[in-house]
């Protein structure tokens, strides 16, 4: 798939980028090229094996695409962590599933429902004291938790 063309097509109505020249065009070309590369690797991997049934070797190939590796040891836990980080955890992420996956992805916290709709409270087992570590944990949570949910931390 040519993601550069796709990005140009969906951004054109917004009229916020110069899509034919300058930095906007360069940015779209770079983003499109990066997305094409990821798509090609995922297409190759998915053609061989789905995450849910991937072997040790195939999981390692998936993990190379992730910003950080899962810290789980068993193959079933690695499959769950990779699926969560790729956003394909059986197309749904229940609260028990999320709490099972968080530690596998290196986040020592528990998610809890709140009284507010579409909001989860994240309770850290031991809150990171270093601001950069906390920022990294929040980034990981943002990649794991479905995007329609808001997060509050305690």
Structure description:
The structure is a single chain. With 154 residues, the chain is mainly α. Helix content is 53%, strand content 10%. The chain has six helices and three strands; from the N terminus they run αααααββαβ. The protein has helices at residues 3-11, 22-48, 56-65, 75-85, 95-104, 131-144, and strands at 109-113, 119-124, 150-153. The chain has a three-stranded mixed beta sheet, covered by helices on one side. Helix 6 (131-144) links the parallel strand 2 (119-124) and strand 3. The chain is globular and about 50 Å long.
Give a short summary of the structure.
With 154 residues, the chain is mainly α.
> What is the end-to-end distance?
42 Å
Q: Please give the largest β-sheet.
A: 3 strands, mixed
Low-confidence stretches: none
Quaternary state reads: single chain
**What is the succession of H and E elements?**
HHHHHEEHE
Overall mean pLDDT score?
A: 81
Could you say which overall geometry the principal axes of the C-alpha atoms support?
A: globular
Question: Percent of residues in helical segments?
Answer: 40-55%
Measured by DSSP, the beta-strand proportion falls in: 5-15%
């Amino acid at each position: 798939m040519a993601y550069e063309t796709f990005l140009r097509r969906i951004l054109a109505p917004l009229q916020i980028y110069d899509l034919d020249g300058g930095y906007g065009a360069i940015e779209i070309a770079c983003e499109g090229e990066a997305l094409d590369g990821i798509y090609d690797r995922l297409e190759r991997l998915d053609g061989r094996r789905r995450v849910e049934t991937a072997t040790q070797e195939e999981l390692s190939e998936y993990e190379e695409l992730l910003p950080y590796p899962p810290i789980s040891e068993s193959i079933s836990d690695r499959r769950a962590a990779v699926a969560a980080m790729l956003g394909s955890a059986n197309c749904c992420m229940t609260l028990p599933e999320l709490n099972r996956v968080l530690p596998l992805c290196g986040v020592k916290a528990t998610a809890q429902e709140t009284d507010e709709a579409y909001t989860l409270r994240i309770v850290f087992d031991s809150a990171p004291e270093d601001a950069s570590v906390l920022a990294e944990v929040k980034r990981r949570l943002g990649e794991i938790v479905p995007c329609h949910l808001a997060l509050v931390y305690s």
